[in-house]
Specification:
single chain; about 60 residues; mainly alpha; about 80% helix; elongated
């Protein structure tokens, strides 16, 4: 747990230390992740569109 009276220099050193521990993704990994996100988003959009169309059709049958 962080101390309440931690100095600014100590805090900055801590931030710098943690910053060095970050493992940044490679450009290839970023591209792969972006493709996965786009594909999943499209799949979800198609599912929602399909369900919306189905419910619209069913409700139009009930209302008639």
């Amino acid at each position: 747990m962080a101390q309440k009276n931690m100095g600014k220099k100590t805090f900055a050193k801590g931030v710098a230390s943690e910053w060095k521990k970050i493992i940044w993704p490679t450009p290839k990994e970023v591209l792969n992740y972006a493709i996965v996100v786009i594909l999943i988003s499209l799949a979800v959009a198609l599912i929602v569109f399909g369900l919306d169309s189905l419910f619209h059709f069913l409700f139009s049958l009930i209302i008639k």
